[in-house]
Amino acid sequence: MKLNVPTLAIIIGEGGSGGAIALASSSKVIMLENAIYSVISPEGCATILWRDPKKMLDAAKAMKLSAKDLLDLDIIDEIISEPIGGAHRDKDQILLNVRESLSKNLEKFEDMSSELCWLEYRCKGVMESANNHAWQRIDYDIGPAKFLHTLHACVGHFNPDIILTNGGDRQHLTYLQQLSDLHYPDFNLHRKTAKIKVRSNQRVVHSYGQVIRKENYVPLHGRLHIDLKSSFIVKEGGLLGLFELAHHSRQSTQDISRLSPGSVISAIQMRVAMEDGVLVPWKKNRPEDTKTAWELMLSDRGGLYLDSQPGVYTNVIELDFASLFPSIIATRNISPETLNCSCCQVYKQSDKIPFVPLNPDDANLYFRKKKRNQSFSLGVFPQADEAAQMVPGLALHTCGRTHGFLGRVVAPIIERRTQLKQKRQSKGDMFDQQQNALKWLLVTCFGYTGYKNARFGRIEAHEAICAWAREILLQTIAMAEEDGWQVRHAIVDCVWIDNPSITDTDVKRDLAKVFAKKVSDKIGIPLEYEAMYDFIGFLPSRMHGAGSLTKYWAHGEGELKLRGIEARQHSTCDWISSLQSRAFELLIEAKKQHLLLHDLKIQQQIISMLHASLKRLERHEIEPLTLIISRRVTKTLEQFSVFTLTYASVLRAQQLGHTINPGEKARFLVVVGSKRHPHTRVILEHELHDSSIRFRVDVQYYRRLALRAIWAILAPFGWSEEEISSGRRIVTLDQFIQPHPKMVENHQN
Ligand SMILES: [Zn+2]
Fold first, then answer.
1. CATH architecture of the domain formed by 624-696
2. How far is the CA of 372 from the centre of ligand 1 (A)?
3. What pLDDT is recorded for position 2?
4. 265 Cα to the center of ligand 1, angstroms
5. Separation of CA 389 and ligand 1 centre (Å)
6. Which residues of 353-383 are buried (b: 16+ CB within 10 A; e: fewer)?
7. Hey, CA dihedral for 603, 604, 608, 614, is it positive or negative?
8. Helices and strands in the chain: count of H runs, count of E runs
9. Residue 448: pLDDT over 80
């Protein structure tokens, strides 16, 4: 449905079920006289309605699926008449009729630009949501003035609250205004009479090391214009997620839809500051406290990870801290104004001091009680002595008296997300969408505490959070080992544990949940059961033999989970992704048949699959479109200092007469070319549509990619890239006699 050219559908026999929906999105739908077209077959409908497939004739009548009925209902556009007795009686005649209809309609499409077809499709969508199933399609071929008039009347009639577009910010709405200036000045999409205006112009922004292209912002008055193409929030959390964020930030939904989650967090912080009656600094101006080199070294390690032993493990349980960093902010009372306060006593033994409750209401109560005790305490001094919370390993403490600002910002978001997650029944339902939008807020809110432009950040807050995260993970690992679990790996907020002595997986799962509850109570932040994996492979680092920090693949509960693996990355070409998928399928299949994954036979299967594919590559039998690599362009042509393939693509695009701007993606095929002329090293994707183009795929380049992709799967089993390339595993005599420690596999269920 994302085609941006006009499409034509001709239904010749039975157009039924889900396939019919695809046909409905065509610009024009045409039917043969005796064809039928419906979202369900009459038999299916009768079975569902009356539990009797024999009543299909009644169903067929009620469903109005004949060409004539559908034309009356405006669902199709045209009927092609059939010879007497049906199309099969005279095939030449029917072919003639179809050809006539085709050429007539194609003529109409000729002067239609691709943007207008888009608009037409989207308009249909809006009208649909405005009034149940009544919708009106407006074709551009009636001429611009009439088109605008009809669209205007339509918007007036349906009076929608929301207008969704797919690229309205970038071009469609301004184009409509231009058309209206020329042909139909009365045209109006607002709820008051006004022209469509761009509020902020497109620009390129840098965010967390990424280059993002921001489109124009074209707002509407009195109704919401939401551009699906320029809204990260709608993409991640749907419309419901968007409304959720608008509610939290008290900002206009239309404005919020164009913002990044980080900007939404800023808006929420401002709201809380306003409610506090605090003036918000225009720009942050409090300098960071000075630090010694030792302190820097201690604090700048970032999140902690356990140096994992690469290898493949089976029946491993993953436990996650939900929203770890924001929860640390809330429970450890970390905020710029609570750090190193001068009102509290610093005690060396601080583990007796309770944490702030995560629930915002409980937290308010906690601080209110403290305040009451301060005001009415007995004794010589009127003010009670309050203990500060020490940050582990750093010369920092947080206030025990004042409820921190950041905590008051994030705690309600965490609480709301927990509630939504409990209500969620399946992935992607409305609660899931809302909680997903909030997740992005919580992710960015950690980044913001150390961010130089953040209004409420302070680098010490960032360090304190990291120090707590390390402490919490270490404590969790210690508790796990105390309870007899083996910790396979741990990264920042996840731990993977196993207890090989428990063979029943259900028992193991229950015990893990009990353990998670125990940790949650101790730490004050919920540790949740995430999944049990049939198998999980931790990759070694490519630089040294030790474990890689964040690269792993796992399979459990019917799903494959990949982190840092090619198949997961958008830049990877289809051929490489499918190589990896097939390798994973072999592993999953072997596990299903209760085979030992460490058996060399299964690994050999993957190797032969790879080598068969490499042979096809060398014989140039791989479809070039599946070798297209995509890279986000971050610089203009002049800014490149290293002549990468991305540079080659940008250069080639320019020589072909168009530019790839920073923030856009370059999609290219790597071919054999000359080193001195970088633009000959690649072929751009759109060039492949030209069948006359000649090129030779760079076999060596793709071979390297393929070897590396399979290495990611076999390295945890101990294979090196050379061994994969030659196809032979070198097993030393020592390994032969005694199985390698990481080859020990607990064989269960
Ligand atoms: Zn204090």
1. 3-Layer(aba) Sandwich (3.40)
2. 15
3. 52
4. 26
5. 9
6. eebbbbbbeebeebbeebeeeeeeeeeeeee
7. positive
8. 24, 20
9. no
CA of 418 to the centre of ligand 1 (A): 29
640 alpha carbon – ligand 1 mean position (Å): 51
Kindly give the distance from the C-alpha atom of residue 370 to the centroid of ligand 1, in angstroms, as a whole number.
12
Q: pLDDT-derived band of residue 111, with 50, 70 and 90 as boundaries? A: low
Containing 32, the helix (H) or strand (E) segment is strand 28-32
Query: Whose structure tokens read 């990896």?
Result: 580
Phi, psi of 313 (to 5 degrees): -125, 155
Task: Compute, in angstroms, the gap from residue 348 CA to the centroid of ligand 1.
Answer: 16
Q: How confident is the model at residue 284 (pLDDT cuts 50, 70, 90)?
A: very low
ipTM over 0.90: yes
Compute the distance from residue 498 Cα to the ligand 1 centre, in Å.
42
CA dihedral 685, 686, 692, 698 (to 10 degrees): -10
8-110: what CATH class? Answer: alpha beta
CA of 342 to the centre of ligand 1 (A): 6
* Percent over 90 (pLDDT), the chain: 22
Cα(85) to centroid of ligand 1, in Å? Answer: 92
Residue 537 corresponds to which tokens in the numbers above? 């492979």
Task: Please give the distance, rounded to the nearest whole angstrom, from the Cα atom of residue 110 to the centre of ligand 1.
Answer: 73
Q: Which residues pair with 537 in a beta bridge?
A: 312, 553
Q: 527 pLDDT exceeds 80?
A: yes
Q: What does the domain layout of the chain look like in residue ranges? A: 8-110, 114-230, 624-696
Distance in Å, CA 398 to ligand 1 centroid: 7
**Residue 737 amino acid letter:** I
